[in-house]
Write the structure tokens for this entry.
Amino acid sequence: MTGAAGFIGANFVHYWLQTYSGDRVVALDALTYAGNRANLNPVECNPNFVFCHGNICDTALVERLLREHEIDTLVHFAAESHVDRSIIGPDAFIETNIIGTHSLLKAAKQVWLEEGQQRQTHRFHHVSTDEVYGSLGPADPPFSEATAYAPNSPYSASKAASDHLVRAYHHTYGLNVTTSNCSNNYGPYHFPEKLIPLVITNILQDKPLPVYGDGQQIRDWLYVEDHVRGIERVIKRGRLGESYNIGGNNEWTNINIVTLICSLMNQRFAGQPALRQRYPAACSAIAGQAETLIQYVEDRKGHDRRYAIAPEKSNRELGYRPQESFESGIRKTIDWYLANDQWWRAILDGSYRQGASEGCHSQ
Ligand code: NAD
């Protein structure tokens, strides 16, 4: 797999090794700013886990890993994933999301097809986003797998290009592929530059809660473990060459999410002296007024107004249903950030970067 030290990749590794304890997971990750070795602490001592520090653009390295470990399932998470960063500096997005995905496809083609290893059970699964479909109006039906691609940001355009390459390698060369396009994720190990962890960690530090534009942008949110279960279903049951949308029919405006988190944080601190002592800086939440930290800021350039996923195909073909309700998922997420303040503080002060290491090793 690629991108194991990132948000969704790390959740996938934990789930997979718990669920399939006999499987071996080989993780390739470049440990960019978004990759954090601490995300993998729970599996570092697992003998079935191998970590390799390297770049997906290094095709020779990928080929070597495929051969040496006889990898039959390549799950591809690695990406530059933050839309705001893609607006400031698109180059890294083109490099990793397009060239990097192509490098993986070339390596899989070489080892699985040209060296004759590909069996029915071999699979290249590409993890993608609903942002490839562009933006919806308020009355538009949600994105289905038949919706035409219309990406609007450098991030979504680079993911769209990677989706097309994956599809092309199936149709042209017969590589066994599947793709999943998921809505916005939230949950443990989410880098605190993204909306939900940013709001939680800023409340804990009594910092302003920035809301873009009028805050009425709509996203369809899914708890990260529900995404991981969806990927599992596609890997196990998805038809080769097909794409599956994964989502939970859970549309929220940004401002409503921020106010929900504020009210849950106010409740979380109410009558909890130990928590108040642990987070004395969270004075607005301690006073039951976290929402006073909300500040509207200039809107993101080209900000898509609404995303929404129609998950009927994955419901029907894969029997997929998300398990977590939004409020309980947000409560779990808040509790995770409260219990793991060392994790997010190390990101905020930059010390998490010291965990990067060279080479490949299993523990
Ligand atoms: P993330 O930014 O948290 O993690 C990305 C990981 O990829 C990091 O560990 C990073 O070190 C690694 N990486 C980046 N460039 C690399 C390279 N060139 N070579 C090797 N490793 C590299 O991302 P995420 O939020 O976990 O997203 C994972 C995947 O899921 C992405 O493909 C993303 O497009 C997709 N996705 C994300 C969401 C979401 O809400 N986060 C929703 C739908 C789809």
